[in-house]
């Protein structure tokens, strides 16, 4: 009854449970929605946790850590070209094209913002309940938002993760760390430090040592402690997170000099 959530009456539920009746497609979709998963995620479970070709590509996209991973971005774009008129794939392609633009314009995000803004304004801003792929997409296009929109997105994303996807703590950590960076950009150090304290704790809980080093380095940056910040950036390089190390060094240069 809890799962039905007024979607189906008691008599129909009893018939479905006893095998006397099959739910209509629309009711089935509603029940799946009440589970907090998408149709694609349901199909993945129904197939015995076997991925389709599309799901494998979506996973590769989710695991893409940085916009600077040019070889991986190009390889993934080639694979995505095999899917035509798929809305999920189309949005992913836009994000990868935006990443390519950032690389081709020496880090300038002006064009990249224009490329990915329709994903937000034409789709995700209209959706009440974001699914797992939506959350990953939002995390990767974080750079297009101003602080007010970012605050709303982060708060909503964290609430959805806690209520429906508690296994996505790593993604929750990413949202919080992204928010800390934007607050650092706005010189809102107090709010950034609050985020970083939470991000540090979460990173420890999920054993994400690269994110833990990001949190610790940014805390040092916010405290204008250059030596400590450089220490954590160097540790990132030592554990093989070279992209993170380079990004943190840029942050040290930008924020501590600005102060």
**How big a fraction of the residues is strand?**
under 5%
Shape: globular
Largest sheet: none
> What are the segments in which pLDDT stays under 50 over at least 5 consecutive residues?
none
Rounded to the nearest angstrom, the radius of gyration is: 21 Å
Helix and strand string, N-terminal first? Answer: HHHHHHHHHHHHHH
The helix count comes to: 14
Global structural class: mainly alpha
- Distance from N terminus to C terminus (CA atoms, Å) equals 58 Å
Average pLDDT confidence is 85
User: Portion of residues in helices?
Assistant: over 70%
Overall number of strands: 0
Summarize the structure.
The model has no long low-confidence stretch (mean pLDDT 85).
Task: Give a structural overview.
This protein is mainly α. Helices cover 71% and strands 0% of the residues. The protein has helices at 10-17, 25-34, 39-46, 53-63, 70-80, 87-104, 110-121, 132-140, 147-164, 169-185, 189-205, 209-222, 226-238, 242-258. The model has no long low-confidence stretch (mean pLDDT 85).
């Amino acid at each position: 009854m809890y799962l039905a959530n007024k979607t189906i009456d008691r008599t129909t539920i009893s018939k479905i449970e006893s095998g006397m009746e099959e739910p209509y497609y629309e009711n089935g979709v509603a029940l799946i929605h009440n589970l907090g998963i998408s149709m694609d995620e349901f199909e993945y479970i129904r197939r015995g946790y076997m991925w389709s070709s599309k799901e494998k590509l979506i996973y590769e996209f989710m695991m893409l850590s940085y916009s600077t991973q040019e070889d991986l971005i190009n390889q993934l774009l080639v694979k995505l070209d095999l899917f035509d008129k798929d809305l999920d794939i189309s949005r992913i392609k836009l994000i990868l094209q935006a990443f390519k633009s950032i690389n081709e314009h020496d880090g300038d995000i002006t064009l990249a913002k224009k490329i990915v803004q329709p994903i937000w304004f034409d789709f995700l801003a209209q959706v009440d309940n974001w699914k797992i792929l939506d959350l990953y997409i939002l995390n990767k296009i974080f750079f297009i938002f101003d602080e007010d929109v970012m605050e709303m997105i982060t708060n909503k994303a964290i609430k959805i993760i806690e209520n429906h996807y508690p296994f996505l703590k790593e993604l929750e950590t990413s949202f919080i760390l992204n928010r800390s960076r934007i607050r650092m950009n706005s010189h809102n150090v107090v709010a950034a430090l609050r985020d970083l304290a939470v991000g540090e704790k979460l990173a420890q809980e999920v054993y994400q040592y690269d994110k833990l080093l990001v949190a610790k380095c940014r805390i040092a940056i916010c405290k204008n402690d250059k030596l400590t910040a450089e220490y954590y950036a160097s540790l990132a390089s030592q554990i093989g997170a070279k992209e993170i190390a380079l990004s943190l060094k840029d942050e040290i240069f930008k924020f501590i000099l600005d102060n």
